[in-house]
Amino acid sequence: MTGPAGRILSTGIVSALGPDRPRTIRALREGRDGGSPLSPTRSRKAPPIPVSEVRDPPEHPGAPRADTLAMQAVVEALTGAGIQAADLREAGIFVGSVTGDAFESERRYRDQIREGWVPCVTVEPGPGALAVRLARSLGVQGPVVTVGSACTSSAVALLLALRALQQGDVPLALVVGVDLITATLIHGFEALMLLDPEGCRPFDRDRKGIQLGEGAAAILVEAATSQSPAGPRLIGGAARCQPHHLTASDPDGSGAEAVMRAALADAGLAPADLRAVKGHGTGTPDNDLAEGRATARVFQGRAPLWTGLKRFLGHTMGASGALETVATIGCLEAGFVPGCLGFRNPDPDIGLSPIGQAEPFPGGPVLLNWFGFGGNSASLVIDVPAPEGSRP
Amino acid sequence: MRVLAAAALFPEAGPGDLRCPDPARLEEALGMPRPRRVGRLARLAAASALTTARRSGRPPPWDGVAVYLGCGLGNEGETQPVVERTVAMAMGLMDGPASPVHFANSVSNSTTFQVAQVLGTRGPNAVLSAEGHSFEAALWASRWALGSGDAPAVLCGGLDEWTDPREGPLARMGLPPSTRLGEGGGWLWLEPDPAGDLLQNPLPGPGTIRPPLRLDHPRNQAAFLAALRHLDAGPGGVLLIGAGVQESDLAPLARFPLQRQAYLSRTGHFPTAAAAVIAEAFETPEAPVIHVHLGRGPLGLVATVFHPGGAPCG
User: Fold this and answer.
1) I want to staple B207 with a disulfide (CB 3.0 to 4.6 A). Which of B56, B159, B226, B279 is the partner?
2) Is there a contact between B15 and B265 (Cβ–Cβ < 8 Å)?
3) How far is A323 from chain B (nearest CA, A)?
């Protein structure tokens, strides 16, 4: 890696498991299923599927729901780091999102139809508008970038933030992932026959598809120095594209394997150095097979504590990079690797099984993986010290 | 960063809004097979990216190359019909959702996926958005990828598409319906420059500035103006005046030998229009003057400096 590690100062999260980090991590420790029946307001024709939906977020009249969730996560992160918005002036903002303002577009379009207007959905802002609104409301004057790389979006945003810090272009980076469950996502994945009516079962033999989720997460990062206090560090990462098919992984998982190896090389680590791996684990038959085979090859059939979070948080699309990073760090700092909820039966075609129950975390480097439409893949390596109580 | 090659994609001249050629014409000229079930924006992106890659002098395979595309309006031509159909169906007004193909094509990075598939790239791949500064966002991402060694080269583009109804994208840009809407953009093939980055290399001197600069920050203004002092000793330059720029924005630059070029009359209005004229500057290396681009959007005034001199492309 060319440059210093990224010191993670603080994080914030709003998820189906809770409106903040403590409640989200508590639910992960308890192994609580994040799925519940979909609210009927999302679609009258939705299939009966469980989703990981954020219930009762605070109302801010006129504010888009995505902004509300994102700002809630940002405020938690800023508060946790003792940083005021004024301190962000020189910072950069790096947002990863797939749906962006689509939730509002659908809502306005529905209103137009009800009121008998000729619909015109294109009056909505562009994909970068949410980040620009965040930057303006926080007074940020550094680079503002919204990444669109499907389900790897906010993981790639975090990697770009690390690179910007390493090259001295920003003194501080605010990384945000936010995505909402929209009717377009529900019916799009329904058309692709990728929704599991029983909730997602990552890497399970009987898996049938994804469990949609929504939420927001924020991560404050700065370049680590020798004087930086102990804490989680982003020590490497990689992003790749294996353009096999727009919606399907390459069957042998060569793209997934390549990005994991590249991230480990960037961090200067060997597979045996890792203490845990957070898989992408969507629960779809093809993607989990490709990812599982790649993971088995990288770790020669003996992965360290391997888990997946999507039965908890749902598949939060482009936001999953930030949400799952924040959730993973929170669990590891609390001393455990969460079990892969939804997994019951090993898949002999994968040849590797995730952990079913939470396991103690001894401290050390962990690998986090994401894969998405368009053949995109991203892997990050984060070093998390042993929890306070378990240090020698 | 060093620009090895470039390809501009300008709309065709004509009355009313300005539109690019049919992608099939571009594909035929390049000897590309006509893709099936691929959106128009993705086809325009792939054809112009392939032109750039062929001009780079770098032989295929291009597997490690990153693809970063700035896009301000998004993949609206694909997204809009999917959203319309889905919402109408969700309200019980229509049977059946949009097809899986249309849904997949509506994802923003279907554009850069198509580029990767046509060129065979395997490096980082993403669409970058920041409203009217989306091409600048792609330049930032390119700088970070090259500086860190994440990719040996980057195809960095800016591209937006005309969509109907035209009032929609104009409203997004805060422009009245009488405005001439355009489409197009351009690509740059970027590689690391050991002598410095895009700005520092042609402008060695006081003031460390990085591409692109948001000039609302006083420190950035000072660094920008200090660096431009080198124009006085050179052959002058071109000031590309982008969207939203006001006369007061230009006043601090009046003392520099810059020839003004208001390019929006050639491109029409779209968020990444600057990519077309900047790529064009690198297509014609016989004019090795510094190009300064100004654009004002929701993030304020942004400047980027380019020096096409010595770029072996065209």
Assistant:
1) B226
2) no
3) 19
Q: What is the CA radius of gyration of chain A?
A: 20
Q: What pairs with residue B69 in β-bridges?
A: B127, B157
Whole-angstrom distance, CA of residue B185 vs CA of residue B48: 9
Determine the Cα angle at B293 with ends B292 and B299, to 5°.
Answer: 135
Residue A169 · residue A143 · CB < 8 Å: yes
Q: Using the 8-state DSSP alphabet, how is residue A73 labeled?
A: H
Give the DSSP letter of residue A171.
S
**Residue length of chain B:** 314
Question: With contact defined as beta carbons under 8 Å apart, do B66 and B150 qualify?
Answer: yes
Domains for chain A: give ranges and CATH numbers: 6-387 (3.40.47.10)
CB contact at 8 A, A239 and A259: yes
B292, B282, B287, B307: which is closest to B157 by C-alpha? B282
Query: Which residues in chain A come in under a pLDDT of 70?
Result: 117-124, 389-392
Residue of B38, B68, B69, B131 to mutate for A, most A C-beta atoms under 10 A: B131
Q: Most A CBs within 10 Å: which of B67, B75, B108, as the mutation test of the A interface?
A: B108
**What is the ipTM metric for this complex?**
0.96
Residue B201 has pLDDT above 50, yes or no: no
CA distance A336 to A359: 5
Sign of the C-alpha dihedral computed for residues B65, B146, A218 and A147 taken in this order? negative
Rounded CA separation A21/A70 (Å): 13
Rounded distance, CA B302 to CA B295, Å? Answer: 5
Contacts of A222 (CB under 8 A, 6+ apart): A6, A7, A9, A165, A171, A172, A173
pLDDT, tens digit, for every residue of A258-315?
Answer: 999 999 999 999 999 999 999 999 999 999 999 999 999 999 988 899 999 999 999 9
Q: What CA–CA distance (Å, rounded) separates A161 from A327?
A: 19
Sheet holding B213-214, edge to edge: B213-214, B300-306, B290-297, B237-241, B258-261
B172 to chain A: which residues are within 8 Å by CB?
122-126
Which amino acid makes up residue B175?
A: L
Domain B2-191 falls under CATH 3.40.640.10 = no
